[in-house]
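Ops channel
N.P.: pipeline sanity check, posting one input/output pair.
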C-alpha cells in the first residue's frame, strides 16, 4: 500500500482556478477509496488519520506542526485542539491569553489532561505577543490559527500577521463568535476581493479598533478604554482568501473558516 508519487509544486492559482493543493486533496481521496481494505478502515477515525499521514509523507500536504490560538480562557479549546494536534504529529500548541488568572486555571487543567508540556500558554496582549513571536523568529508562518479573543482585535491582529508576512498560501484561520456576539469588520475583510481590499487600503490603516456593528459590551470587555493596537497597518491586501461560514444546525453562532489560497500580483 503506497501513496502516488508527488508532483513538483506549481505556481499559485489565480482566483477561481484549481490549485495544486486542490489536486492533491482529490488524489488523497481517490487513493484512500481505492484501497482493498476499505471495510476495515470504515468507522475508525484514527485509521483514516494514519492514511492521511502516510499520503502526506510523499505528497507534502500541509499538516500543522504549530497551532496557535488567540484567547485561552480556561483551556477548553486548548485541551480539545491540543490533543488533536499532538495525536496527529504536531509539535506544539501556542495559546495566547491576556488574563493571568484564567491562564493559571487553564494551565492546571492542561496539566491534569496530560497536555502541560505540549500546550504553551503565553500571557499578555495578543498583538504584542504575536509581534514578539515574529521578531524572535519563533513563528515563521501561520499554519493554523484559532481566533477567539477580544472581538475588535480579530481584524487588527490578522492585518499585523499579514504585514509581517506570516500569512502565506496554505494558512488557515478559524474565527469563532462571528455571528454572536458578531464581528462584521472581520467578516467583511476576509470575504472581500483583492480589488476591494486594495481600494480600502488607499485610505490608510484604521485608527484604533474597528468596532462597527459590535455591541458596546463586546467593545468594552477586556481592553481599557482608549486602548490602541500595537501596530496600525493595512495588512497585505494582495492575499487571496477563500472563506466559508460553518454553523452547526440549531446553533445561533458560527465559525468562519478562511484559507489563504494565493497572492494576486496583477
Amino acid at each position: 500500500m503506497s501513496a502516488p508519487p508527488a508532483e513538483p509544486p506549481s505556481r499559485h492559482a489565480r482566483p477561481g482556478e484549481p490549485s495544486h493543493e486542490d489536486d492533491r486533496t482529490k488524489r488523497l481521496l481517490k487513493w484512500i477509496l481505492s484501497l482493498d481494505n476499505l471495510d476495515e478502515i470504515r468507522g475508525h477515525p484514527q485509521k483514516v488519520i494514519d492514511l492521511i499521514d502516510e499520503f502526506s509523507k510523499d505528497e507534502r500536504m500541509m499538516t500543522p506542526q504549530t497551532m496557535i490560538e488567540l484567547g485561552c480562557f480556561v483551556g477548553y479549546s486548548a485541551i480539545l485542539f491540543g490533543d488533536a494536534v499532538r495525536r496527529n504529529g504536531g509539535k506544539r500548541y501556542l495559546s495566547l491569553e491576556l488574563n493571568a488568572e484564567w491562564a493559571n486555571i487553564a494551565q492546571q487543567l492542561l496539566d491534569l489532561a496530560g497536555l502541560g508540556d505540549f500546550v504553551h500558554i503565553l500571557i499578555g496582549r495578543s498583538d504584542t505577543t504575536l509581534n514578539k513571536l515574529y521578531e524572535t523568529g519563533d513563528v515563521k508562518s501561520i499554519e493554523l490559527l484559532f481566533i477567539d479573543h477580544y472581538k475588535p482585535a480579530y481584524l487588527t491582529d490578522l492585518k499585523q500577521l499579514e504585514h509581517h508576512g506570516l500569512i502565506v498560501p496554505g494558512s488557515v484561520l478559524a474565527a469563532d463568535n462571528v455571528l454572536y456576539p458578531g464581528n462584521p469588520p472581520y467578516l467583511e475583510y476576509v470575504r472581500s476581493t483583492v480589488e476591494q481590499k486594495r481600494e480600502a487600503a488607499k485610505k490608510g490603516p484604521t485608527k484604533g479598533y474597528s468596532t462597527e456593528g459590535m455591541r458596546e459590551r463586546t467593545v468594552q470587555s477586556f481592553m481599557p478604554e482608549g486602548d490602541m493596537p500595537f501596530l496600525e497597518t493595512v495588512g497585505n491586501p494582495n492575499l487571496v482568501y477563500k472563506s466559508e461560514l460553518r454553523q452547526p444546525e440549531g446553533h445561533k453562532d458560527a465559525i468562519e473558516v478562511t484559507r489563504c489560497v494565493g497572492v494576486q500580483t496583477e
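N.P.: looks fine end to end. DSSP finds eleven helices and seven strands in the chain.
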